[in-house]
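User: Please work through this fold.
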Amino acid sequence: MLAVQMIAFPATWYGGRLVKKFDSIKLLGVTILLWGLTVAFLIFNAGWFSLIIIVVAGACAIGNSQSYLRAQFSNVIERSESGFQFGMFTVASEAAAFIGPIAYGAGSDYFKSQRIPLICLFASMVIGYILIRKIVNQIKPKLGTV
């Protein structure tokens, strides 16, 4: 985990600089792909090479996916309600941090495998990304450039 965090910090800093050149919603999609790569290598473990890919891809995704998601959220909320909206965002994040591991553990126990819950987790990320893109595309004309 220390290696992940040592890579994640500069990767997230660099990811913030990439937003100046690329659309944050597309960069969020790239982080979802990195999560998919991480999940795939977790499922089909092929030794030390897999561990390197898991650490690097996961580290590049961990901070950037959160920051790109917050950036998108800040683009779709009313500025006058930002305190309340980010408060609700935090409540939802904390609820997910509490419920997620419980659901993952229950799924692993039920299926007698960690692979199926990992696939379900990644599928939920993809579905969430599709929904975010759809919402952003619907409100883009109202906000100008997002």
About this structure: The mean pLDDT is 89. Residues 82-111 form the longest helix (30 residues).
